[in-house]
Amino acid sequence: MNRPILHPRGYLPLVAVAILSAMIGAPERAPRVLLLGDSITLGVRPGVAANQTFGGQLETMIKARGLDASIINVGIGGERTDQALARLSEVLKANRPDIVLLMYGTNDSYVDFGRKTSRLAIDQYRKNYGELIERIEQTGAKTVLMTPPRWADDAPPNGLGENPNLRLEPFVELVRAIARERKRPLVDHYAVWSTARQNGVELMKWTTDGCHPNPDGHRAIAEEILPNLQPLLTATIPGKG
């Protein structure tokens, strides 16, 4: 009588393990949501802890709805679109996102003291923004475009003595136009904050300094993102790792 050949120590042969793994399939991971932007995206500053940023609050809101996602915040203070392009390949390779939330314009549009024009010309901003979208989507990730929030009326003036919104608004309009042209989701924080202002909200009370959101401002941002992000999270997103 022939006896079955057992693997030493009772382990399954490697071939059998491979077959079983293929039959079962690798477990799918939670979608990775990358937050790409400047100090507003980074969020952490005196008076704002990591869990109080819009990324931190968004993660809490997502889990409260029974969804699963990994929120990865790679915001850098002071960053413009040209600087984002310079580090984009490394960021995408390191994080392999499924969805990228993109918010730039506050720094690109700002006029520094001693200067008469924005840090970046709006035509360069358009070119950079388009390239960011294209390079992100070449990896298979989906982009969600976001306008930056409005500055408070009593925010410190720019280098020309103007309220920074004067220079920011054309950049905001451009983001809206790009979203229409490319048929990409848009989260229009500038419009939401403008409406809140019209309804009597003092935007300084949503910020630490007239520009950077405090926990209340970050909550307003997260609440606006959630309904735009949720359909992407509930869609089938193949695991990449």
TrEMBL record:
Entries under InterPro entries matching the protein: Ester_Hydrolysis_Enzymes, SGNH_hydro, SGNH_hydro_sf
UniProt-listed Gene3D superfamilies: SGNH hydrolase
Domain SGNH hydrolase-type esterase residue range list: 35-220
Molecular function via GO: phosphatidylcholine lysophospholipase activity
PANTHER family, alphabetized: SGNH HYDROLASE-TYPE ESTERASE DOMAIN-CONTAINING PROTEIN, THIOESTERASE 1/PROTEASE 1/LYSOPHOSPHOLIPASE L1
Protein name, per record: Lysophospholipase L1-like esterase
